[in-house]
Structure formats: structure tokens, C-alpha cells
Amino acid sequence: MNISCKESGQYRNAVASGRRMRLRLLGGQLDPTRPRYGTDPIVVCGRNLLLVALILVFLSTALAQKPSSHSSRPHASISPEAKALLEEAIGVVCTQAKLDPKSSIAIDEMQARPSLPVQSPEARAGAERAQRLLPLTKSLMIASLQELATEYGFRKSPNFQQRIKQAIARVNSVKRVRPDMDSRDNASVYLSRPHVITFGTIFLAGLRSDEGMISVLAHELMHIADGDNDSLRPLVAAVGNKASDLTGLDIHGQRSEEIACDLIGAMAARAYITSTPGYESIARRLARSIQHNCVELDEGDEDHLSPRSTIRALLALNPELVRELINDREERKLP
Ligand SMILES: [Zn+2]
Structural domain of residue 202, as residue ranges? Predict the structure, then answer.
């Protein structure tokens, strides 16, 4: 069984690489005129009031009888203050995308670029960076996975511990990054070749910092950790549920896996930044781990949130990241 980047025409998404080849076949096109989220408002008026009331009673009875898979879990929420900070943090990330010479190129811009030969200087530099950072990223990713499992209350489950152990073994078996011109702005993993991460040359060249590269490598490693049997599914689903609650977006199924991979990527990059202090602004370095999502053309699909919704969900899940992105800016305002 393969894990691969989804390539469904114009909705292909560079970083949020999909899981399986079959998704490629299933990848349909979105109707941009149709709202994807939420429901139509119920309009109550005049003589239809009684009828509507009867329908509402019927619906509420029907809904009450329908078993809900989420009924027992507590629902996460976000305060208006936290929401305002989150928007401010998004501003920092995408402003840095324009100011930072090492910023990651936005996905939509990468998609518009011509293919890049493997031997081009930019692709070679990117491939060397990816290969050099792979061993470190494996350690950072494993630590992030364990941290996430603890945060979501899975560390006490012996069954889940066993799954984590096997996931770590799969991550440790990854040996190589393979640059590929045809993969363009995608990175992907084929479970038939679990020791290799295939990386499009445009993507290799577009991630111009160690922070950006670590984030994407850790994302792909999380797909490998989850493996062919979705062995980390309970954790992945918990992350998706929380992201849905916090954003109001529909983040279930494959979308929850993609956001969990992105979250692990951001956590790994943040751990790297903490362990390698330097002269650069912390916010600038943190921004690199997610700013490939600062697109102009913001489109998602069935399996992936749109890039800008991805940033929003990631920051909602990671308030420390929000705080650090904003605090750094506050400090810089001081004389
Ligand atoms: Zn992915």
C-alpha cells in the first residue's frame, strides 16, 4: 500500500501530502460556489410557522436518537481574546514570509513554478539540506510524538504504548531523501519503500531554511509513524476533533491525519529552534515552520484544509506557538 501526495489537479497541496494512491483517483474537484462548511439557516415565517415547529420537533427527536461518536468527549473552545491573538500571530507568520530572506515559498507560488531539474543548484542545495537534517528530524519528531501522546492522555494506555513503539521503529528505519523532479512541489512516502522520503525538487528549493525543512520532514515521518494500518488513529482523531472544536472547521478523516502531521512538524521545528539559539528572531524562525501556507490562492479539498485554514488550525492547537510569535514582536517594539 502506498502513501503518496495527493495530486488532484488544481487542488494539489504541497505539504499536506495525502496518504494513499487511491486518494489520487478519488480526488474530485470542489465547486467553489458551494459552501463547504456550516448549514443553511432555517427561515421561520408567517403561516409556515406551525409546520416548521413540527419539523423541528421531529428533527430534534431524530437527532436525540442518533448515537453520537463525540458525545462523551469534552469540547474545546477558544475565547475571543485568544482568537484575536491567533489572528495577530497569523499576521506575524505571513509578514515574515515577505521580510525574511530564508522564508519558505508559499505553496501556490511553488505550484506556478516550472519544473526544476534534480541537478540544478537550488534543488541540490535543498536535497543536501534535507538529507543532512533527516537524522536530527527523526529524533525531534519522535520526541514530539511522545509529547503529543502525553498531552492527549495516551501515555497511560499499554496498548497505545505498543503502537508508539512500533511507530518509532518505523521512523527510525527511514534512511534517505530522494529528490524527484516529477514530484514538483510535493513530498511523499510510499509504504512499499518505507526507508525513503520522495521530495519534489521545487519543494526542496522552496524550503529555504532548516526550520522549514525540519517541519516538512517531520510531517512525512508522521505519515510513516502512522503506517499502513493507521496505528496512531486514536491520537490523530483526537487532534482532529480538537482542531474542529477550536476552529469550527470540519477536520475529520484524512484531514485529521494531515493536521496531526502538520502539528508534529511545527512541534519538531519549535524544539529545534529552542535547542539552537542564535541571533535571529525567534518569531522569524518559528514562522518558517508554517509559512509555506501563506498563500494568495487559498484552496483546500476533501482531504486537506486550505493552506490558510491549516495555519489557523495549527495555531489554535498550539497556543505556545501563538504566544512566542507575538511576544517576540512585543519585545522588538521596546526601545
Ligand atoms: Zn501529509
Answer: 9-26+87-333
